[in-house]
Amino acid sequence: MAKTKLYLVRHGETLDNVNKIMQGQTQGELTEAGREQARQLAQRLASWQVDAFVSSDLKRSIDTCRLLAEPHGMDVVQTPLLRERDWGSFTGLYIPDIPLDDPWPDDIESLPDLKARASRFLDFVRENYRGKTVVAVGHGIINKAIQAVFYGKQMRDVARMTNAEVRYLEL
Q1: How far apart, in whole angstroms, are the C-alpha atoms of residue 4 and residue 54?
Q2: Residue tagged active-site, from 13, 84, 109, 139
């Protein structure tokens, strides 16, 4: 049986990335550098055989994914399963000011909930794209959770993804 190829991509650089603002599930806006990152990645992917482009339903990922899908003439499927972690009351804060020690506020999506959503995303890909090649554009933390679930690792043991970076998983 053919394997499903999943290429996880983190969205291009955003204004909030530059300003070190916790974006969470806000829409976000790509910078010109972020759009250029996506265009360069689109050139790399242009010769690849891709069956589907899937994106978080947040603007920064949709915009990145559309640029990647453009050379293929394909539409982008959106899913809330790929949304970034819900940072609750930390959303919009300057990241260096966020306390690193627990307890965090109760309105932040828990790691077990985040990893359960990551698992549901992997199931979604397996069920809908069996034997296909999928490019999926998400966010730093959800992509980390997807990899942690896939490899059976702790979140802290998965390397941080940079903007417009690609990671490969064979499902």
Answers
A1: 14
A2: 84
